[in-house]
Amino acid sequence: MQLNLRLNNEDSQAKKERVKQAVERKKAATESMAEAWQRIFAMKNSETDRQRLTEVKAAMAAGVIGRHPADVGRRFSKAEALRLHKELAEKQREGKIAALVAKTPANYVLVDTSEKLQKMADDIKASELIALDCETFGQDGGALDPWRGQMAGFSVSTRRFNFYLPLNHTEKTALNEWADNDIVGMLAVPLMSSKIVMHNAPFDCKWFAVKYGLNLHDVLYADTRIMAMSLDENRDHRLKNLLTDWLRQPSDNFDELFPNVPFNEVPLDVALPYAAGDTEKTLKLYDWIMRQYERREDLQRLKRLVFEIEMPVARQFIWSDLRGIRFDVEDAAKLDEKLAEEETELQAKIYELLGEEINLNSPAQLSKKLFRDLKLPDYGNGSTNSRFMKKLKKAHPVIPLLLEYKEIGKLRSAFTQKLSHEVKHDGKIHPWHNTWGAATGRFTCKDPNTQQIPAKRPEIRHLFKATGPDRILVSIDYSQIELRVLAHMANETVLIDAFKHGRDIHSTTAALISGYTYEEIESEKDTDGSPQKKYRKQAKIVNFGIVYGMGAGKLADTLEISKADAQKIIDEYFRGYPRIKRYMDEQHRKVMRQGYVTDIFGRKRRLHDDVRSKDQWRVFAAQRQAGNFPIQASAGSILKKAIVDLQPVLAKYDVHILLQVHDELVYDCPCDITKEALYEIRDIQANAVKLKVPVRCDIEIYPERWQQKVTVDEWFSGIRPEK
Predict the structure, then answer these.
(1) Is 662 helix (H, G, I), strand (E, B) or coil?
(2) Could you report the per-residue pLDDT of 95-128, keeping only the tens digit for each?
(3) What's the pLDDT tens digit per position in 260-305?
(4) Is 536 contained in some domain?
(5) Residue 99 forms part of a structural domain
(6) What is the CATH number of the domain that holds 396?
(7) Domain end marker among 62, 92, 122
(8) Global confidence as pTM
(9) Where are the beta strands (DSSP E) in 220-369?
(10) 354 and 413 assigned to the same domain
């Protein structure tokens, strides 16, 4: 019977597919190409896609390119049109390169003699503002890694000339008799005395620092990628695409003109207009954005945000990444072995409970076993995603083991097996912090992503070490900064009063949603099995969940309760904190009215497309973001303001910021730093912005390894951990 049902189901699926194909054929047969193009252009298209679609349409009309025989008879789609654009680009590539060379402007200079090198140095000295960009190459990702790759050359644009200086091209010049360091050395003083504009500045600054010892981050004036983020956080920010979309100056990206060609092999007569064109366009983009900033007061506020907060923070973290943090490769290997043993033990227990051995990393095999064989509730249409698996924790004893098995696998692949490969020749890991990486204005990080290193498995963080025997790591972390910002922005008197009087915020909320008094919650909050402890745990999740726009469904999943009970908790929360409800409602109205919301520094979150959508879920999501963005973004902006305020103090005490992890800064300090110096740094961090509530920061000292701590009192009383 089951076999027949399965066959019938398969027949039904096949029938649906045949009907779908028939509908597609009918549409293709009845729709003209003019109608197809009208449909495609009516879709939501980026400016870049619209430009490409226009080029394909024109090329098809001219007979330059046509549909593949296999596609004829099918409905013409946007995806097919964009595939045709790739073919068109290949056909046009040689012509574009020839035109690029033929149209090289007279003020483009290939620096291939000592006389031209001197001219470049003199022009940089005479210029108030310059743009700079480097071209790199290397195998297996080396073109993106200054510790492994090489610099082919670099370009500089002033208001008069656009220079390209080749350093390591296969095509030689008279300057190749000189050493790279001597060539760059002639430009070192002029460059380090300039105001420099770059696009994606951390990349270029790091290459010059690692390869030639040039400190360009201190003279970095503007990063046009960050400036572009301030005007539109929702789009891509590649230089060529910004020029196409904003300045209406279409240009080709490198991988379109030179597929699979390292830059050092590009002929110099081609490299000149391409590379020098990049810096000339960077200056044009800079000028265009500066004009936009002057159009309105809100844009002038964004200009202040960029130049007073974002650029100093960007300069700081270029240096932070260059300084790096030591990593214990040997201990990482030992920890990986230990985790592998845990993984094997868990696997054996899982096999025993399942009654057979299957590939636990195969979603298909695992799904079949759980939902077909064991007949467990299927909340995600066969998905074995952790979100759905967590709902099954009480349904079968194998589920908690599977979740733990998956977690250990992630720890191994993301950290103990991977991080050792990120260590450079100086024995350090050099992360790449993107100081405006998220749409909210928050940091992101990669290679490795230190944001994702789990605090609940401290042995992973223990692999990161102080930068030398005479140095220590110190963490200064904002305490509940987002809840403090929420109290401030909502002007919620109950929360404000609790913070001012030092009451536990989670116990305060627990009292509102439980019926217990604050004192009753506090007295039993650490007693296992007590309802007070349960309510405080719920309150903690609700407090932070409200900040992140958590709805009843997500709260129900997290607390493992019914959606109705979760909604009741949310209702009680808003009843106890009425001004938070009023604030959230006002944010929802504001985003529906104006299409964006702002944080305390004027940073914008633009949600115009979402609030105008016919998809009601997109509208709801936009309203949730409108409620939580000002809180999250303001908390992040406060930390950034603190980084700016800290600059002179850090230099005074020989202290360096190494990492940013959520609301925490990890510092590299000398062993003999005084308690007073640490308190001064802490207080500057805490007082960066005055709120209606006190802001508190906590200090933790790690004498040797990250998160292997001693208290401040222990450290300054001479107590040292055993090595």
Answers:
(1) coil
(2) 888 888 999 999 999 999 999 999 999 999 999 9
(3) 899 999 999 999 999 999 999 999 999 999 999 999 999 999 999 9
(4) no
(5) no
(6) 1.20.1060.10
(7) 92
(8) 0.86
(9) 220-223, 325-327
(10) yes
